[in-house]
Amino acid sequence: MEFCQVRVEAHQHGATLYVVGLLADLAASRAEALIAHVPIGTAVIRVDLRGVFLIDPRAFVRVARALNHWRDFRHGRVTIEFPERSAARTPVRPQLIAPHPFGSSRIVHPNLPCLGH
């Protein structure tokens, strides 16, 4: 059973590395090998991590080092797309919904279920 997939799509000037599933040692090893074999003349490597559901920090560092090595050696450019759920989120403010029958107001968080009294 595989917990990850690492694929590359390349043309004369650019390559996209797709990682899906778990970014751990196996995915990092595959990514390192693919990055090392990107054809000469490639100007840009794009890494798409949007399909990753869990990132092991050590594995990510391995991939980042391979990309840095490639960029420094080939004088290329690297871009990385992270999973959406890793994006910064704006805080959600509680909403005042209705006066409580005993005189105080109930505050309900919009992402939590409201339990009646």
CATH architecture annotation: 2-Layer Sandwich
Using the CA coordinates, give the radius of gyration: 22 Å
- Uncertain runs with pLDDT below 50, 5 residues or more? 104-109, 111-117
Alpha carbon gap, first and last residue: 48 Å
Summarize the biggest pleated sheet. Answer: 4 strands, mixed
Q: State the order of secondary-structure elements, H for helix, E for strand.
A: EEHEHEEE
- The number of helical runs is 2
Provide the CATH superfamily.
Answer: STAS domain
Q: What is the name of the CATH class? A: Alpha Beta
The CATH topology label is Transcription Regulator spoIIAA
Average pLDDT reading: 82
Q: Tell me, what's the shape?
A: globular
Overall number of structural domains: 1
SSE class? alpha/beta
Give structural notes.
The chain is α/β, with parallel strands linked by helices. The protein has one domain (4-85): STAS domain (Transcription Regulator spoIIAA). The protein has helices at residues 25-36, 57-74; strands at 4-10, 14-23, 44-55, 77-81, 95-99, 105-108. It has a four-stranded mixed beta sheet with strand order 1-2-3-4, with helices on one face. The protein has a two-stranded antiparallel ribbon with strand order 5-6. Helix 2 links the parallel strand 3 (44-55) and strand 4 (77-81). Helix 1 packs parallel to helix 2 (57-74). It starts with a strand and ends in a 9-residue tail after the last strand.
